Amino acid sequence: MRKTITLALLATGLVALGCGSGAADKTSSSSGDESGANAGTSASGKDEVKDEDKAKTAKIGQPARDGKFEFTVKSTKCGVAKVGSDPLGQKAQGQFCLVTLNVKNIGKEAQMFDGSSQKAYAADGAEYSADSGAAIYANKNAETFLNDINPGNQVNGVVVFDIPKNVKLTKLELHDSMFSGGVDVALG
Question: Strands, DSSP E only, in the chain?
Fold first, then answer.
């Protein structure tokens, strides 16, 4: 009985630590945003959030910061049916959109870049998650798959989205971790 209670308390403590570190990451990501677009609250509240979203939107070729990462989207290429070589590779369910980007660590400690934390959106607001399996074939050195980037270092890689053939992406939401607020990059 005592062993069961001890194990239950230990498990609860581990879960609390995991949740607490996620909250700390989210807090540090928000406060670590050096773009000056931190959220403010006022009586109207909603207007300031909309202004903040506009201030956080970058375009292709412009650096955009979220937490410890500075992202620069270099290019996008949609309409790709397959990534990888003939014997190995992955076919799209619809079409692949390949997003080539540079990720620079602007923090003071190593940060893991995870391509699966990135999101893409269509004009109708539909949200698309990154395809980590396809990204393995689209990147020579797994640049976008759980890659630790030390302070001051940067990587170039491709994040892959598998979207329907008739859809056009309008924006990306890039994150330094799955818990961060993210930064928007307009694609059109």
Answer: 58-59, 63-66, 69-83, 90-105, 111-113, 119-122, 127-129, 147-149, 154-163, 169-174, 183-186
